[in-house]
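How a chain folds remains the central question behind the approach discussed here. The record that follows shows the chain in one-letter code together with its fold in token form:
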Amino acid sequence: MGYTIGRLILSSLTLLIFFGVAERVLDRMHMSDKSAMLVLLAIVAGSFVNLTLFQNDMLTVRINLGGALVPLGVALYVWFRAGSMKERVRSLLGAVLVTGAIWLLGMFISDEYALPVDIIYLYPIVAALVGYLFGRSRKGAFIAAVLGVIFFDVSHGVYLITNHIPGLVHFGGGGMYDTVVLSGVLAVCLAELIGETRERLQGGPKAEGHNQSVLQNLRNAQNTSGTGMKEGRYHG
């Protein structure tokens, strides 16, 4: 198995976390440097492990630990830590829309088209864009993008079963490993870029209609960003 773009991205993220560059983003995702490093290592190591969940003459269902199970666990963790029920519902709606967008992309674009990039890498771009547009927050964008890709695999399995088509459903396997990883990373990066720009233009997080304790935590994260110091954390 070659060193895919997904693994290259994860290696780069590991370095960013190690040097404290991604600290502010991790704070927003309710993750520490140590837990994020463990997640990345689990995704890379798990990418080499495929489990067969079901198999008969018509259908084979497999799951890749690093490409589906670990990202699913992280997405659920972030979902339960979301700031409000509205954000949770919005992210789940975004996931459904991401699934629909990937289906449409697959229907109207095939390998016959002369594309500048492999079609498999268009999926995470679309997933990240739709995930951010409907998830809106960093957490919501990540949840929508990752769950949307996993939901797509589920819908593919349902399609094969309902139409009595023999086939393979491989959650997070093959090219979908890169799709899951890149979707989550691009969605968070897009949300961080746009969110950071908006907050700087308005002088901080928008206060109207938001919980004041949450806003204070965000301001504290901004004030300490880049210093390497947090409560209970010091990079010395």
The radius of gyration is 19 Å. The CA atoms of residues 101 and 107 lie 10 Å apart. The chain has a mean pLDDT of 79. DSSP finds nine helices and five strands in the chain.
